[in-house]
Specification:
The chain is mainly beta. It is built from eleven helices and 43 strands. The N and C termini lie far apart (176 Å).
Amino acid sequence: MRWFKRIAIGAAVLLAVAAIGLTALVVLVDPNHYKGPVADAVKKRYDRTLRMDGNVRFSVFPNLGVEIEKLSLSEPRSTQIFAAVDTARVSVAVLPLLSGRIVVDRVRVVGLKANVVRYQSGKFNFEDLLGPAPKAPGQPGGGELDAGGKPLLFDVAGIEFSGGELALRDYMKGTSMRVERLSATTGRVAPRTPFDMELSARVLGQSPRVDATIQVQGRLTVDPEQRFFSAKGFDLKATGVLPSIRATALTAQGDLAYDGQRQAIDASGVAVAFQGDVAGSRPLSGVDLRLDAPRLNAGLAEGRVQVEKLSLSAQGKLGADPFELSLSAPALHVSPQSAQGEALTARVSLDGKRDLDLRVALSGISGTADKLSIERLALDGELKEGDRVVRLASASPVQASLPRRKVSVPQLTGQLEIQDPAFPASQMAIPIKGSVRANFEKEHAVAKLEATIEGGEFNASAEVSQFDEPRIAFTVAADTLDLDKLLPSARPGAAGGGSGAGARAPADPPVDLSALEDITASGTIKVGKLVARGLKASNVSASVRVAKGRADVSGLKASLYGGSLSGSVFADAATNRIGLAPTLTNVALQPLLSDVKHKDGLIGRATVALNLTATGKTVGQMKRALNGTASLAVRDGAVKGVNIAQSLREFRSLLSARKDDARQHQDALQTDFSEMQAQLVFASGIGTVRSLSVKAPLLRVAEGEPARIDVPGERFDLVALVTVVNTSTGQDGKDLADLRNVTVPVHVAGPFASPSYTIQWSKVATDVLRNTVKNKLKEELGIEPSESGDKLRGKVKDRLKGLFR
């Protein structure tokens, strides 16, 4: 035992010396003297500024430690603060250092504030802190701690964060968020060793809109080198506003693991529950969702999938209409050697103005992971809207390869049947067939669809690439396409099914262009005969391009109503702005207006050029923000609702009383003209007639004041200046002789559908009386009133003498 006694005495002496040395270190050495050298080292290594405005203190008992106050670190080559800490304390055990291990007893950080940024390049503003230090000439690689050539192993007994704040900005996605009241604690942290973790925080943001409280706990294992992460007993609770959702309650529990090298996930006992609302162009409210996955294992690269009793159920309201969603996958087992499973089913139902019942089923699973075969994929559904019923029945086999990440739906066949009392035969049957092929490894997919619509062929194809940010190339070609039959909402004046308040259209319907934001597409459209909202056209063609939230329709051409259409249209989701610049050439206005508006207030052959834009989130806002120009040229036409010439002939009974003549719009009346030209300017929804020229056999019409067209209010308030000309021939001309060269104001006012016309005799009575006297002098006395004064007086005197002889 003598040797044991000697070792014990030696160890005691060493410990005593070490204790004396550490005590002397704390007492005799002022760590604040090293602030400058440490800051210089950080500046040299990372080109960042390290500031320690508070005290630096050493401690020995119970462990060797250091505490730093008021610590901050700048961004690279900048004075802007990257991170700051109110107080940080780190303590380490002494004896493990002798064996090349760093065992950190505890890390405590109070008041951490950091700005985390991801730039457009995809790099973060802290990546330089994670990489190795630059190599100095003649030195081995820096940034590695070693003990006699052996790397030091880190082992942290626990970490505590409190009072933390993080600012997160992602320039790649355009998002900005802030984390407040960040609090986190962990158990022992060491490489490839499970540790307990609890975290709570409040997350705020405007882009996207976020205001939520989050609590997370679980037992984590992290191995960055192997790209492995797992969470046992994972438990998440969140309430508040999260991106696109408002959560009354959101919980998630289970065991999760992800292996990045194998590209595999393994989950068991997963249960997710959500109550709240979901935002979007068609928001969901009162959603109650639950997902259960007792067992889910997927490693597509290895060709393995295992699913046991997976179920999803949800209910709530889509707008004002209740909906239900369900998904069931009782069992699915796929491996490189075999594939089998029970039928997978899904169903969506919607009740309300439109009743929808959509069903999907996959059955007959066989083969292997590389040659997976699904005997039947069935998609069936029924949509009811008022008296209209649409039924879809379709099916196809499916072939897939999990290792090669390929899926093929080679023979889709089915029929779309529409029953509608408005159809001549009360129903329409549309046979369809198509195919889909997708290669997820190459991020490429091709889809084709063929159909027969009212005896004509319909063909559409699409090619998709870059699935993360899809790029779509498409073509659509149809012999005949009647959208008013296929889409009842596209019918002019359609109110949809149902009755009562639930069937009424909103007072100011929304205009939502957000669907354009995530689409990049280009393609062509060709239609032999097209009907849309009553409009009938043939030989329709256009090119479509959608990118960065903007859709452009260019090269638009069509033949319609004996004339032609050309022009362009655009829609921009970023500004919620639309624009159109079409030109109609030599079109027949009466059938065009009758088909589109069910009104034929203007007749004739017309050339119309529009250049208009509108901005807003509702139809009303767009009307109030309508801007642009319009020009109109019509020949051999008529304005329906009033006969101006006939109204002028009745001037004598109204003139003496200086009374205006107000008349309502009458469809049976019209004012014929040989030529009409007009120029209009629209600003903030108000149109102004800048110029107007109408030529008729007896009349000329020009613009007056006011000259206002109120688009939001759908009202006219304009004055047309009517001048009588060419009264020398015919009975009509003689009746209007007293009005020759007199400009009569006609005030057009009231709603677009039925304006009133007021002939303002009170403003022209004096001019008409003067013309009457002139005409009587000529008729009764044979005197031309245009003769000079002396000559005129002489003729009057002679004619009066003759009357009394």
